[in-house]
Amino acid sequence: MPLRGVLGSAQTRSSNAGGAGNARPAALGSRRGRNQPRRRLRRGVPRRSPGRRRAASTTAAATAGPASVPGAGAGRSPERRDVMLDHVIKGATVVDGTGAPARVADLGIRDGRIVAIGTVTEEARTTEDATGLVLTPGFIDPHTHYDAQLFWDPYATPSMNHGVTTVAGGNCGFTLAPLNPARPEDADYTRRMMSKVEGMALAALEEGVDWTWSTFGEYLDALDGRIAVNAGFMVGHCALRRHVMGEDAVGGKPTPEQLQQMLDLLHDAMNAGAWGLSTTQSSTHSDGDGAPVASRHADPAELLALSKAVSEHEGTQLEAIVAGCLDQFSDEEIDLFVEMSAAAGRPLNWNVLTIDASVPERVPRQLIPSERARKAGGRIVALTMPILTPMNMSLGTFCALNLIPGWGEVLNLPVPERITKLRDPDVRAEMLRRADSKEAGVFRRLANFGRYVIGDTYSKENEGLSGRVVNDIAAERGQDAFQCLVEICANDELRTVLWPMPTDNDPATWALRAETWQHEDVMLGGSDAGAHLDRMCGAPYTTRFLGDCLRGRKLMPLEQAVRMLTDDPAQLFGLRERGRIAEGYHADLVLFDPERIEAGPATLVHDLPGDSPRLDSRAIGIVSVRVNGVETIRDDEVTGAVPGIVLRSGRDTRTVSTR
Length: 659
Hints:
Elements: H1 3-6, H2 78-83, E1 85-94, E2 103-110, E3 113-118, E4 124-129, E5 134-137, E6 139-141, H3 149-152, E7 164-169, H4 185-197, H5 202-208, H6 216-223, E8 230-233, E9 235-236, H7 237-245, H8 256-271, E10 276-281, H9 300-310, E11 317-322, H10 331-344, E12 347-351, H11 362-366, H12 368-376, E13 379-384, H13 408-411, H14 415-422, H15 425-435, E14 452-454, H16 470-477, H17 481-491, E15 498-500, H18 507-516, E16 522-524, H19 541-551, H20 558-565, H21 567-573, E17 589-592, E18 598-599, E19 603-606, E20 613-616, E21 619-620, E22 622-627, E23 630-634, E24 637-638
Helix pairs in contact: 7-8, 8-9, 9-10, 10-12, 16-17, 19-20
């Protein structure tokens, strides 16, 4: 029977919101209930949402004692504890992650694993009726920057709310470890770099993270036992360079002895569980001082030596960024990617493949490294997003506009000088020329200022402009679009929020996306969740994509869409017993209403340490999320459980060899 034929009206029937098998305490912070004000996430302050609903269990066993520890409860024999299921989900439409047709089945969980699928008659501590709901594996986000946020927000919001149960961090060459204990100032350098290059609020990095580790293993240990999602981390090339070379990491070349020290640090990190090496050569990546980040000064020999080291460890990967990732690779960049993957004998993934039918030559060019890598004994995978990511811009803060060639020279000036320059017609004309040049690459699409929508405004002169399109305002005022936008922003001392309307939302581009997604070396992901917090909100790509597949453009059958969010990244990273609904697999699960699944609009909230802002999005139609069998989300609300684990290479990942 077709999937839509087996899906009835969906309701939440019954559940123990805490979930059986949760042996860990409530963790830090809490996500608001539907009618509650947002509660600030504070490190070290256990907090529960007072409005969290706990539905009654349908089994008498659940009333016999605490359900937070497997087998706990008065009057229950050890033998009975061994055989009783922790939780049963009844009558769900199971989409198992393999691409197989959906089927209606029960699912039984014990000790964090899936132990029964089909008709489950065993007694369980808790059960819930999931008739009309879809049950899938937990979603896996292959490109996040939750390295810092997990310390003040162990729930990885909003990703976990949108069904993500496993995140890959430590990307783009940037990690919080290792730190050289002989140079305490390196922590401050790292904070300022992360604030600049990844858009993390400096106050949140200062107030929300302890910074008490030195080695990469100590960093992983600091997260172990206190997170709600499963998380694996690459080790960043920039951190390796800074640890060994200090200030010389920016601008310098390592001596043979220093390169060996970097290799030793990388080996130590992978021995402790790092997933491999991440690095960047991107021209858009600068540190807190505005200088190119450390890894941008590495030559190919250094990168290949580090890649070779990755080959010596089980369950490892490469992740790399170069300037051409934003538009089209140079021949030298293609050579570098192919040689790195071949040297490691491991997959290399990069972020992000931008698909636009108006630039038809881009996708074929960006997939040349994948074709060449297979012949050379490597594998290169391009990440791409299946949605248009909500973004905001500003002439007053660092954003993508600063990355347009030549624009940083103006936008980095003090605000009064910046306004004076922006009001100069000659300066504006030169900025527009640079923005429309070939060297601007993918940023060319940001230069159509007439298609910007005005967001929040802060002055009397701009009252009534929020939500209006710049072209319409400019026509009323007899101005060109960029001049009009500059004057609006100047009235707000450049604090005006700007929302660019997407230029790649046409049917031809969506058709090209659907075609590109079928390529064996293209994978969905690239959310950057945990980074660029006040400028973009990529975390909800999972629910928005599924909603589009079910009720929107319907570019993919649901079964295939789920596989792309679950088993595909699990196979790339070699995750052991994750990414599918199968007996013996970890019970990372998402239960959702197919008639409602969607992501709410991105809204700016102030809930980070230091009252810093971020963009957030509500999850619509997600009924329940389970991590290792324990419920972490019920109806878009955090339960307080922290059952996630730090996924360590070798132990939790197997080698995905390319040779």
